[in-house]
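Action item from last week, closing it out:
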Amino acid sequence: MKLPGPRHAARKNALVRGVYLRNGMLSEILPGAAEYLQGIRACGVKTALGSASKNASLILERLSINPLFDVIMDGNKVSQAKTGSGSLSTRR
């Protein structure tokens, strides 16, 4: 079985962004989620978000919650991932 290549992924990403932007789905956040993040940060807890999605930063920005994360690692920042006990290679 042949796996989808980068062109397929880029097309899917553009379609997802178009649907989200057109339908306003980027304004939805679970009730209490932002307050929870604010509360744990007020207690000194560091927060991070990890996502394979290349849309993570866009979604966080649209929800106005990106400042609530100390670190955001998404599909735009990881160039190659190793499975198992390997490490991530990040773009600089």
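Closing note: The CA atoms of residues 4 and 48 lie 29 Å apart.
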